[in-house]
Design brief:
Number of helices: 28
Number of strands: 30
Strand content: 15-25%
Shape: elongated
Length: 823
C-alpha cells in the first residue's frame, strides 16, 4: 500500500493524526523533568556497624571482614568497598546495573542477620539500607536570626525545617550543618568517685534504671480496664540532680555530690562557617532516580511556606544550589536547538530557491521533534544533556527525507505534471530510498542505546532519541510532505507568471546556466574515468583516518563551568576540630580576596572525622567575571601550598565518584607492600605534567592512648579485659548512644550522658586512677591491672573486594582523561 498516495487523497486523517501527536508532544514537553544527566540507578546497599571507641584495626578484624565474607556469596555483585574509621565500619556492596535493588537489600540483610551472633556484643545493631541519595548536596540554606541562640536555631532546623522539607518528593536526606545537639551531661569527679568507692559505670547503670518510664500491666478497676505505668523519668534537671545513688557501702548520696549535672550540649564534632562567620545551615540530598530541578523547585516552595509561618526575625537564605547551573545548561541547549532549526531552514531555502518548497520541508522539523517528547515521557526520560544533544544533532537528519520527497515532486512538475499528480507519481519512486535512509541512520544510532556499563546508561537516551526523531521524520516525509506538496505547490508555468512566488532565476525549476556546478561536474566525470585511482584515494583517506584515531584526546565528561567549586581539606590524624577551623578560616580568607569569589561555606568535621573539612566556593555569575571556573581553580591552587600541614585540593565532579578526575586503586593483603607501592605511584603521578592535586588515601597514623592489660595480674585480681575497656570507654566517651538514658521533654527526649568531667578526662594520670570492678565486687585501680602507654595506629582502613586498598587520585589540568591514563 502506498501510504503517501493514501495521505494525498485523504488529507484529513493525516492532519488529525499529526495534530494529536503535536498536542501530545507539547503536553509531554511541559511535564518532562530537567536534569543535568540521565537518571541512572546505581544498585548499591550499605551496611553500617557502629562500636563507640573501637579502633579501625579491631573493627576490621571483628566486624568488616565478617560482613564482607557474609555478603560475598550473593549474586550479581560488582564490587565491595569498605571504609573503617574509629568507631564505625561502612561496607558498600555495589551490584551489577539492572539488579533488583529491593531484592538485593533483603539478601544483604539476611546475610548480615545470619552472622549477627559472630559480631561483638557491644556493637549497635547493624544498619542495612539501599543507597537512597543520588550524587552530593544539591542545595544548602543558612538559617539566620539576630535575637536567637545557636541552640534555638539548631532545634528549629532539626524539628521543624527538616520535617517540612523531607515531605517534598525526591528529598532523601536533610543534614544540619553546624549548630549543637542538646544533651544532659553528668560530669563525674573521679576523686569523689574514688572516695565513695563507686565507679562511673555503676552510676550510669543506676541512672538508666531510675530515669525511665515503663509499662506495668493492666487491671479492671471500678468497672473499667486501666493500664499501669511506672513513671520514673525525672521531670526536671533539678529532680535528676537529687536522685539518690546507692553506694557499695549501703548508703546513698545525691547524684549532684558525685559531679555536675547540666542541661548542656553534646561535644561538638562538626561546625560550619559562612564567609568566616559561624552559621547554622542545612544541606539537602535527593533520592536516586529523582529529578534534580523538580526536587529543587519543591524545596524552594517548602522554604517559601516556612518563611511565611516562622517568626519574622528568622530568615532562611539560600547559600548555593546546583539547579541554576542545570537550568542555564538546559536553556543553552534549547537555544542551540532553535538556532540549529533556523539555520537548517535557511540552508534548505538557499538551495531549493522556492519558499513553498522550503516551508513544506521546514515542517518536518517541528512535526518530528515535538512528537519525540511524547516518547521521551513514555520512556521516563528527562530533558538532559544527552537527549537535548541528540535532538540538536538530529536536526540535519530530520529534513533529509523531506528534501528528497520535495525534490522529486519538483522534478515531476518540470515534466509538465500538476502538483497533485506529480506528488502521486513522485512518492511511489522514492519511498524505498527514504525508508532505507532512515533504516541506515537508526542502525547507526540505536545500537548506542545497548552499550554496556555506565557509559551505556548515559548514552542510552541519546541513541533512542536520535532513532525516534529520525523515524518520525520519515513518517512526516511519507505522509505530510507529499500531501502538502500536492495542495500547496503551484505549477511551474504559474510560478513563472507570478513573480515572487519562487526564487528560480529561469522559471523552469532549475538553476541558471551560469550556476557554479561546473567544477563538481568535471570532478565527477574525472572520477568515473579513473575509477581505480578514485577507489585508491578513498582507501588512503580511510586508512589515514584510522591512523589518526590514537591522536584524538579521549574523555568521558568535560569539566563544566558550574560556578561552584568544592575544596577538600584534610589535616593529619589527631588534629582537633579547632585545628580544622583554623585552617578553613585561613583558606576562606585567601579565597574571599579573589574577585571571582562571591561566598564560601566551610564545614568542618562530621562523619569523616574532625580532621577533615569541605569548602563550597560559589563564584559570581559568568557575565560578571573575566575568567572561567577552571582558570580560577588553576589560579588559586598555589595559595593552598601556603597552608602548612594540610592536604587541600579541588574535588572533581567527574565520573570516578572519588572526587578526582583520575583515580587508581591498589589492593593487597600485605599492608606494608601496599603502602610502599602507593607511595611510589603517588610520587610518580605528581611528576606527570597536567596531573594536579595528586594524593592518596593511605592514612597517616593517628596518636592514641593504648591500655595494655597485665593478663596475669588481672586474672589474680578477678578483673577482665572487658571490664577494663568498658570502664575506660564510659569514663571518656560515655555509654553508646543506644544505651543512654533519656530525659523526657514531653514531645522529645534528650540523652543523658554520664562520663568523667573533661578537666579530668584529658589527664592520663587521672585515668590511671580509675577504679575497675572485679568479679568479686572489689574496685581495683586501673594502673594495678594495666599499663597506659602512648602509641599510634591507622586512622582509616579502606578495603576493596575483601582486600586492603589505597586509592591514588589526581585532577586534570590542560590534559584529557585519556592522556592522563597514558602518562
Amino acid at each position: 500500500m502506498n501510504l503517501s498516495g493514501w495521505s494525498i487523497r485523504n488529507p484529513v486523517p493525516v492532519i488529525v493524526l499529526f495534530l494529536v501527536l503535536t498536542l501530545g508532544g507539547l503536553l509531554a514537553f511541559g511535564q518532562l523533568g530537567i536534569d543535568e544527566n540521565p537518571n541512572i540507578d546505581f544498585p548499591a546497599v550499605t551496611v553500617t556497624v557502629t562500636q563507640t571507641g573501637a579502633g579501625p584495626e579491631e573493627l576490621e578484624t571483628q566486624v568488616t571482614k565478617k560482613v564482607e565474607d557474609a555478603v560475598a556469596g550473593l549474586g550479581n555483585i560488582d564490587e565491595i568497598r569498605s571504609t573503617v574509621r574509629e568507631g564505625s565500619s561502612t561496607t558498600v556492596i555495589s551490584f551489577l546495573l539492572g539488579t533488583d535493588i529491593d531484592r538485593a537489600t533483603n539478601d544483604v540483610r539476611d546475610a548480615v542477620t545470619r552472622i549477627r551472633q559472630d559480631l561483638p556484643g557491644s556493637i549497635q545493631e547493624p544498619v542495612i539500607r539501599r543507597l537512597e541519595f543520588g550524587g552530593g548536596v544539591i542545595m544548602t540554606y543558612a538559617v539566620n536570626a539576630n535575637q536567637r541562640s545557636v541552640e534555638e536555631l539548631s532545634d528549629l532546623v532539626d524539628r521543624t525545617i527538616s520535617q517540612e522539607i523531607l515531605a517534598v518528593g525526591g528529598v532523601a536526606r536533610v543534614d544540619r550543618v553546624g549548630g549543637v545537639d542538646p544533651e544532659i551531661r553528668v560530669d563525674l569527679d573521679p576523686q569523689q568517685l574514688d572516695a565513695l568507692g563507686i565507679t562511673a559505670t555503676q552510676v550510669n547503670d543506676q541512672i538508666r534504671a531510675l530515669n525511665i518510664n515503663l509499662p506495668s500491666g493492666r487491671a479492671t478497676l471500678g468497672g473499667q480496664e486501666q493500664s499501669f505505668r511506672t513513671l520514673g523519668s525525672a521531670p526536671t534537671v533539678e529532680t535528676l540532680q537529687a536522685y539518690r545513688i546507692a553506694l557499695p557501702s549501703g548508703t546513698t548520696v545525691p547524684l549532684s555530690s558525685l559531679g555536675t549535672v547540666d542541661n548542656s550540649f553534646k561535644e561538638a564534632r562538626q561546625s560550619a562557617q559562612f564567609n568566616n562567620q559561624p552559621v547554622v545551615a542545612f544541606s539537602i540530598y535527593r533520592s536516586t532516580g529523582s529529578i534534580l530541578v523538580s526536587v529543587e523547585d519543591g524545596v524552594r516552595a517548602a522554604v517559601a511556606r516556612l518563611s511565611e509561618t516562622l517568626p519574622e526575625d528568622i530568615s532562611i537564605d539560600l547559600i548555593f544550589t546546583r539547579g541554576d547551573e542545570i537550568r542555564d545548561s538546559y536553556q543553552a541547549s534549547i537555544d542551540a536547538l532553535l538556532v540549529g532549526c533556523v539555520l537548517a531552514v535557511i540552508v534548505v531555502g538557499a538551495f531549493l530557491r522556492d519558499w513553498r518548497a522550503t516551508l513544506i520541508t521546514a515542517m518536518a522539523l517541528p512535526l518530528s521533534i515535538i512528537p519525540t517528547f511524547l516518547v521521551l515521557q513514555w520512556l521516563d526520560y528527562t530533558l538532559n544533556s544527552m537527549t537535548l544533544l541528540a535532538l540538536t544533532l538530529a536536526v540535519g537528519n530530520l529534513v533529509d527525507d523531506a528534501i528528497v520527497e520535495i525534490e522529486n515532486v519538483e522534478r515531476h512538475m518540470q515534466m509538465g505534471k500538476g502538483p497533485f499528480q506529480a506528488a502521486i507519481d513522485s512518492t511511489a519512486e522514492v519511498g524505498l530510498a527514504v525508508i532505507t535512509t532512515t533504516a541506515t541512520i537508526v542502525a547507526v544510532f540505536l545500537p548506542v542505546a545497548f552499550m554496556g556499563g555506565i557509559p551505556g546508561k548515559f548514552f542510552q537516551p541519546f541513541g533512542v532519541t536520535v532513532a525516534v526523531a529520525t523515524v518520525f521524520s520519515t513518517v512526516v516525509a511519507r505522509l505530510i510532505t507529499p500531501m502538502m506538496a500536492a495542495y500547496l505547490m503551484r505549477p511551474k508555468g504559474a510560478m513563472g507568471d507570478a513573480p515572487g512566488d519562487s526564487l528560480d532565476l529561469n522559471g523552469h525549476g532549475n538553476l541558471p546556466a551560469t550556476q557554479p556546478v561546473g567544477p563538481y561536474r568535471r570532478m565527477l566525470a574525472w572520477a568515473f574515468k579513473h575509477r581505480g585511482l578514485t577507489m585508491a584515494l578513498a582507501l588512503v583517506f580511510f586508512i589515514g583516518s584510522l591512523r589518526l584515531v590514537p591522536y584524538i584526546p579521549t574523555n568521558l565528561f568535560d569539566s563544566s563551568d558550574s560556578g561552584l567549586s568544592t575544596i577538600s581539606v584534610e589535616l593529619p590524624p589527631g588534629s582537633t576540630l579547632a585545628d580544622s577551623q583554623q585552617v578553613t578560616t585561613q583558606v576562606t580568607q585567601a579565597l574571599l580576596s579573589q574577585p571571582p569569589v562571591a561566598t564560601v561555606l566551610a564545614t568542618e568535621g562530621g562523619d569523616d572525622g574532625v580532621n577533615r573539612a569541605t569548602l563550597y566556593v560559589r563564584l559570581v555569575p559568568k557575565a560578571e567575571r573575566a575568567i572561567s571556573q577552571a582558570d580560577f581553580e588553576q589560579q588559586v591552587r598555589p595559595l593552598f601550598q601556603q597552608v602548612p600541614g594540610a592536604r587541600i585540593s579541588f574535588q572533581s565532579a567527574g565520573a570516578s565518584g572519588e572526587g578526582k578526575d583520575l583515580t587508581v586503586v591498589l589492593k593487597s593483603n600485605d599492608p606494608t607492600a601496599l603502602r610502599q607501592a602507593a607511595d611510589t605511584l603517588t610520587r610518580d603521578m605528581r611528576g606527570v605534567p597536567g596531573l594536579v592535586d595528586v594524593n592518596s588515601t593511605a592514612s597517616l597514623v593517628r596518636p592514641e592512648v593504648q591500655i595494655v592489660p597485665d593478663v596475669e595480674r588481672a586474672a589474680d585480681l578477678g578483673v577482665t579485659v572487658q571490664a577494663i575497656a568498658s570502664t575506660a570507654s564510659l569514663a571518656t566517651l560515655g555509654d553508646t548512644d543506644a544505651n543512654l538514658a533519656d530525659f523526657n521533654l514531653g514531645d522529645r527526649q534528650i540523652p543523658i550522658r554520664v562520663q568523667i568531667a573533661p578537666a579530668f578526662r584529658d589527664d592520663p594520670i587521672i585515668l590511671q586512677t580509675l577504679r575497675v570492678p572485679s568479679q568479686t565486687g572489689e574496685l581495683i585501680p586501673l594502673s594495678a591491672v594495666a599499663e597506659v602507654n602512648f602509641g599510634s595506629g591507622p586512622a582509616q582502613i579502606d578495603r576493596f573486594d575483601r582486600s586492603r586498598q589505597v586509592t591514588i587520585g589526581g585532577n586534570l589540568q590542560g590534559i584529557t582523561l585519556g592522556q592522563g591514563l597514558a602518562a
